Amino acid sequence: MRILTFEVQSAQHGWTLEPMALDAFNLLVGVSGAGKTRIVRAIEQVCAVALGDDDAQECIGAIRGARFAIGFEHDGLTYRWEAELEPHARRGSEDHGALHSAAPPLIRTERIHQGDRVIVERTPERFLLNDHAIPKLDRAHSASAVLREDPVMAPFYEAFSRCIPRAALERLPTHGFRFESSPGKHRRHYQSATDVGADFSLPLHEKAELLVAVFPDAFLEIEEAFREAFPTVESLAVQRDDSLTTGINTKRFGFALAVKESGVDGLIPFADMSSGMQRYLSFLVHLSFAPRGTVVLIDELESSLGVNCLPAVTRFLLSRAPDLQFVLTSHHPYIIEQIPPSHWKIVTRKGSRVRVLDAEKIPAMAEERSHLDRFTQLINLPEYEHGVQG
């Protein structure tokens, strides 16, 4: 999946994102309060609506009452999805009455285009699939979630399943658990390191342990990239910890990523690593083998990262840009300086309306300059300096 355009009008205070275009690599820049984080969250919320995952109900609830449109391409096909969502049901309304056991409606209207063809037209009164009327389906879920196995809708659903939830990268558990099982069993389920990378449900340590057991060469690539960022690290491993085993007769055991540093006796477990090491390892494990077409959302890229590892993190993400689509936010001068201005998206807000401008389309940014000069130019632009107006 690659998102091409996005727009949304939220029910909350009329917050509106005007139509924005997205590229393969997008760095949202702007003053605090302009709306960068909200854009990232809105994309994540739309993906959650498309998938209808019960575990994402809080995320879905946050976008209720909104209208949005998202254009994207996937496997050579282009799509545009327009939808209007029902607001939260008011307390005491019939949607929460004793006669209504189903979840309250989520979808008011939606229309899905595949190229120039409308494949879904849905209102409270009717449901058309490929111009054919079908029984009205549960409005608590999107057409994508309800018809995920239909040949027409399956590619649409698959596209949204390629969006990595922010929580997958930001959740940093200290360890993982697994029941005893042979690597052969995993190999039958995962035919390649990319298959492992595509399983976004695998937590950090489980994914790392699986790579070590079944695809050790892939894990070595992660180790080399990590050592480049942290030269004092001699090796990276997944350390088994039987003290975390629960029950006398169980075959369940604990494990965690660990590093061996020069001058330090023994392995340093993940829980004792610096926050910068932990976050970079999360990026490496989850993104090194993520499949082509994966959408990656990261808010405040510099969070928990020390200055010493920012260069490696930035280089790593840019190296994956040809295959993955990134939508990032950052305030950090180093990150902004090191990412080419062709990837900058300047976020501005006037009242509740948000606009996103391509930096290179602003005449003052078109001149050839060093990255540092362009960063200085950026923060002095009227579009940046006055990025939030009443």
Quaternary organisation of the protein chains = single chain
Class based on secondary structure composition and strand pairing: alpha/beta
Helix percentage range: 25-40%
Share of residues in strands? 25-35%
Number of domains: 2
**Low confidence ranges:** 91-101
What's the total number of strands?
A: 19
**Kindly state the mean pLDDT as a whole number?**
87
Distance between the termini: 36 Å
Shape: globular
**If helices are DSSP runs of H or I spanning 4 or more residues, what is the number of helices?**
14
User: Roughly how many Å is the radius of gyration?
Assistant: 23 Å
Biggest sheet, in brief? 15 strands, mixed
Description:
The chain folds into 2 domains: 2-162 and 322-389, no CATH class; 167-290, no CATH class. Mean pLDDT is 87; it is low at 91-101. Helix 8 crosses helix 9 (216-229), helix 9 packs antiparallel against helix 10 (275-287) and helix 9 crosses helix 11 (310-320). It starts with a strand and ends with a strand. It contains 14 helices and 19 strands. The chain has a 15-stranded mixed beta sheet that branches. Strands 11, 12, 13 and 14 form a 4-stranded antiparallel beta sheet that branches. By secondary structure, it is an alpha/beta fold. Helix content is 30%, strand content 27%.
Features:
390 residues; alpha/beta; 2 domains; 15-stranded mixed beta sheet; 30% helix; globular
Give the topology:
Layout: E1 2-9, E2 16-21, E3 25-29, H1 36-51, H2 57-61, E4 67-74, E5 77-85, E6 107-114, E7 117-122, E8 127-129, E9 132-133, H3 143-146, H4 154-160, E10 163-164, H5 166-170, E11 176-179, H6 183-189, H7 193-198, H8 204-214, H9 216-229, E12 233-241, E13 252-261, E14 268-269, H10 275-287, E15 295-298, H11 310-320, E16 325-329, H12 333-338, E17 344-350, E18 353-358, H13 371-379, H14 382-385, E19 388-389
Parallel strand pairs: 2-18, 3-16, 3-17, 10-15, 15-16, 17-19
Antiparallel strand pairs: 1-2, 1-4, 4-5, 5-6, 6-7, 7-8, 8-9, 11-13, 12-13, 13-14, 17-18
Helix pairs in contact: 8-9, 9-10, 9-11
